[in-house]
Structures are given as C-alpha cells and as structure tokens.
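stuck on this:

***
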Amino acid sequence: MIAKFKTLDDLDVRGKRVLVRADLNVPMKDGRVTDAVRIARQAPTIRELSDKGARVIVLSHFDRPKGKIVPSMSLKPVVGPLAGALGRPVAFADDCIGDVAKAAVAKLKDGEVLLLENTRFHAGEEKNDNAFAKEVAMLGDIFVNDAFSAAHRAHATTEALAHLLPHAAGRSMEQELKHLDKALGDPERPVMAVIGGAKVSTKIALLEHLVDKVDVLFIGGAMANTFFAAQGIDVGKSLYEPDHLKTASRVITLSTEAGCVILLPQDVVVAKAFKAGAEHRTSDVAQVHSQEMILDVGPKTIAEFERRLKSVRTLVWNGPLGAFETEPFDRGTVAAAKLVAKATKAGDLLSVAGGGDTVAALNAAGVAGDFTYVSTAGGAFLEWLEGRELPGVAALQI
C-alpha cells in the first residue's frame, strides 16, 4: 500500500507562492519541443493552482548539464508549449535561485505562472544539497510535487524541498500513485504482469519481486530467449544472455515456490535477417534453426495470452513482446495490446502500463488511450515495479 499523502484538495493556495516540481524534460530538436506529452500531463496541476489564485512557480530539470550552465539545455524553449497547454502566459527566469529568481517571483500576481531555469544548472540539485534546497524553498510558501517520473531520484527539488515546506502531490502524481496502488499495492486478483524487453539482466530485481506479487507472469521479448536457453532449448542466432541462465532458472524456481505461473511463448516468429519486411516464418520454440533469430511471439502464444486474460482482473505491462519497431515483428505486441485494451474497455480489467518502449508500442498499436492508465515515467515506473522506495514519493508521505 502507498502511504497517505496530501493532494491539492488539502491546500489553501490563494495568494500563496506555490513551487511546483514538474518534469518538463521533453524531447527537443534544434531548440523546439518535438513531443509535448509530458507537458500535457503536468498542465492540469499548474492550471488548477493558477485558477485558485496561487502564484505558481514551476521547477524542472532538463537533460544532464552536470551542474553547469549549458545554453542548449535551457528550459526557455518550453515556455511556449507550456503556455499553450495552460491557455495562459508563462513568464521565465534565467535562474532557479538567487536575485534573478527572487525578482521574477516578486513580480508575480495571483494566478500568474513563472517557469524557472533548469534546476540541474546547479550541482546542488543532483547532490540533494540542503543549502541549495533552502535557496529554492525561499521562493515559495508551499511545495507541490507533480513529477512522478523524477521521483526515483533523491534530488534537491524532488526530495529535500518536501522537508522544508508544507507539501502535497500534484494531480499527475496523485493519479500515478493511485493507479499503481490499484495495480500492485492492493489489486483485484488474479493479477497478470506482462514483462518484455531485451535483457533479463536489467530486470532481475523486477522479475524476482513480481513472482511474489502476481498470479501470472508472462515473459516476452528477447529476455524470453534466455529462459528458453536455461531450459536447454536452442535459440539459434537469437539475442540472449548466456551469463544469466542461472538467473532465469532461479526466477522459475522462485515462481514455483510463490505459486506464480510463468508463461513463456509457445511459438515464435523467426528470420535469418533482422530488417523490415525480412523473410520470416512461425516456429514452435523447440524448432528454431541454427541460422535463425527469434524476433516476435507467434499466434499460438497470443491465443494462450487471450485465454489467460479472460480470468485476470488486473494487468501490469512493461516492455514489448518482440522487435516491435520493425515490421512485421510488431504483430505480437500489437495483438496482445489490442486484447488488453478490449478487456479494459469492456470493464473486465484494470490495466496499467509504463516504460518508454511500452508507451511507444501501445501508441503504435493505437490503444494507449484504452488502457486504464499509461505511465509516462521510465525509471521511476520500473523501480516502483521492483518494489523499491521512491525518495520523491516517500518525502510526500504524512
């Protein structure tokens, strides 16, 4: 269970200076924002505070300037897209502390919005330096953290600020925590986790945690190949991790002990070349030829997934089931995603998905909007799935 935290409903913000930690670390090219999804996710909190008469001061990091001023990593290009998402003007200050920031904050009237420069231009941000945090705290009366995607980092504006000012979760953070709690904290059972991606090595903690938490664990993507190899199945030229065969065997043993059913693909789509439109065939897992590589799951696997899905009430998804960026090896992921979306829309399933590749895959399948909740957080979502405490969330607890 996620501990109790305050929300915007618990705050009286009229006339108050409210520091909002957002995540505006958005894709950018040639000084222009190329994907404003995160901005759209953060806008409701900022708009609501503004509507309630707060003087809203927005904090965010951008990229990795490593404590130095790097002009190409300025947040200034975000001002226009943020103003567009909010439907109101946004002022900008060239620093997030000191005289420049103080002067910009002093000019604010009730309901106005100010974006401060990249917090990571100061080394104190990533060091979680208390002196830096105090300088930022001087600019506000209340702290609102709406950046779940940065909550796995114990940085000054994600963690320390909550210890210096009255604090609450923003609407995006609130939604994220509530859905994550419904998915794994206190879920309606049975629960299925769909875990894909390339490497077992990056998801050892995740797999070991999930076998204790879920009823069914469906493993796809190239990481399934390591599980096949651990069982003595020849995977041909497929990507797998020979150093982690014992890890895969241990996960299977742990799942048996925990009463968790592990599902691996029954059939796979194989090709001799990994390229768009490559000649390919569907094969039983045990009949992959030495010159072939496994690039997707096959129709029997999707049929078994559909059968299992009918008895599941909650589903968590992280990682694609095949090389979804390259046709025709996107079909398994798209088919599974559409089945989850259909069950969710029918009211039979609570579905939560997250992780960069997962979001891209669901968008490619055209079903991201049909899942109960899709998290735009990457590392924070993964660490939450692993059962780790997120510093930015822990600091909000009351």
Q: What stands out?
A: The two ends are 14 Å apart (CA to CA).
